[in-house]
C-alpha cells in the first residue's frame, strides 16, 4: 500500500513521468448506474477506466484525473481516460467499460492480467 501512496504523491508533484507509472492486474467490467459521475467529477459515459483508491492520493479530484490509461493485453491495446476510483479493485486491478474490455478480449467478462501505464491524454 505504501508503494501506491508514494506513487500517487509523486504523480501529484509532477516529479515522476506518467509513462513510468503503471501496473499489472485483473481487468473487470464496470457497470455504473446511468447518469452517475466518477470520483474525478466527469460523467461515466464512453470508454473509461477506474483505478484503485491508492493511486489518487489524499484528495479528489486528483491530478491523475487528467490522465489516460494505456492498457495492453496480448497484441491489443487501448488508451482511455481515467474517470475515478474503483472501490472493489485490489492493488493494481482496473475496471473498464464493457466496450473497452471486449476490444482487448472479445467475449470476455474479465481478463486475469493486463498491463497498464498512466499517460497524458492525447
Number of domains: 1
Mean of all residue-level pLDDT scores: 85
CATH superfamily: RlpA-like domain
> How much helix, percentage-wise, in residues?
10-25%
Q: How would you classify the helix and strand content by structural class?
A: alpha/beta
Percent of residues in β-strands? 25-35%
CATH topology: Barwin-like endoglucanases
Number of separate helices: 2
User: Judging from the principal axes of the Cα atoms, what is the shape?
Assistant: globular
CATH architecture: Beta Barrel
Q: For the record, what CATH class applies?
A: Mainly Beta
What is Rg? 13 Å
Query: What is the multimeric organization of the chains shown?
Result: single chain
Keywords: Signal
InterPro entries: RlpA-like_sf (IPR036908)
Characteristic terms for this protein:
alpha/beta; 34% strand; Barwin-like endoglucanases; globular; 122 residues; signal; six-stranded mixed beta barrel
Describe what you observe in this structure:
The protein has 2 helices and 6 strands; from the N terminus they run αβββββαβ. The termini are far apart. It has a single domain (2-120), classed as Beta Barrel (Barwin-like endoglucanases), CATH 2.40.40. It is an alpha/beta fold. The longest helix has 12 residues, at 2-13. Residues 1-21 form the signal peptide. Keywords: Signal.
Write the layout of secondary structure elements.
Layout (H helix, E strand, L loop, with lengths): L1 H12 L8 E8 L19 E3 L15 E7 L2 E10 L8 E3 L1 H7 L5 E11 L2
Amino acid at each position: 500500500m505504501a508503494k501506491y501512496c508514494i506513487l500517487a504523491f509523486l504523480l501529484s508533484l509532477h516529479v515522476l513521468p506518467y509513462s513510468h507509472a503503471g501496473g499489472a492486474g485483473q481487468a473487470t467490467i464496470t457497470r455504473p448506474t446511468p447518469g452517475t459521475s466518477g470520483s474525478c467529477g466527469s460523467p461515466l459515459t464512453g470508454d473509461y477506466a477506474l483505478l484503485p483508491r491508492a493511486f489518487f492520493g489524499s484528495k479528489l479530484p486528483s491530478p491523475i484525473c487528467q490522465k489516460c490509461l494505456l492498457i495492453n493485453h496480448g497484441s491489443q491495446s487501448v488508451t482511455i481516460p481515467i474517470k475515478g476510483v474503483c472501490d472493489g479493485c485490489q492493488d493494481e486491478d482496473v475496471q473498464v467499460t464493457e466496450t473497452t474490455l471486449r476490444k482487448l478480449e472479445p467475449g470476455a467478462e474479465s481478463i486475469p492480467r493486463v498491463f497498464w501505464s498512466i499517460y497524458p491524454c492525447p
